[in-house]
Amino acid sequence: MAKKKVAAIVKVQIPAGKASPAPPVGTALGPHGVAIMDFVKAYNAATESQVGTIVPVEITIYEDRTFQFILKTPPTPVLLRQKAGLDKAATEPGKQLAGRVTEADVEEIAKIKMPDLNAYDLEAAKQQVRGTARSMGIAVT
After folding, report:
1. What is the pLDDT of residues 9-64, one digit of tens each?
2. In angstroms, rounded to a whole number, what is the distance separating the alpha carbons of residues 97 and 91?
3. What is the Cα–Cα distance from 2 to 53, expressed in whole angstroms?
4. Do residues 56 and 24 lie in contact, with contact meaning Cβ atoms separated by under 8 Å?
5. 44, 18 contact by CB (below 8 A)
6. Which of 19, 21, 105, 126 could cross-link to 110 by cystine, CB 3.0-4.6 Å?
7. 3-state secondary structure 65-89
8. What is the reported pTM?
């Protein structure tokens, strides 16, 4: 069987279980001629257990207009805001404190993010999560 030629790779962040043909999905996939409703149905079915979280997806579109997608882990800032119970981060991160997360929360987020981070071990992943928290004005206690 011959390999399909890749026409494009599209990355989009969509709320889990709530994808619709409206932007950003429609505007990202439309120019490539993909059946948008087929993607929406497949994405919503794959992410129905994570409703309420933003789940990035990497869509590989082939020349024959078929597609394949890979779900990524939710963005670190989204996970940190959930743990801290915040709607948004600090407007002035160096001067303002928006919230707090515990070291256990940082470890849990690092374990979730580990497959998508470029870290060799859990300690390096935790350090990346701490850095993101600092840049959002969230203190790690």
Report:
1. 889 888 888 888 888 888 888 888 888 888 888 988 888 888 878 888 998 988 88
2. 9
3. 37
4. no
5. yes
6. 126
7. CCEEEEECCCCHHHHHHHHHCCCCC
8. 0.76
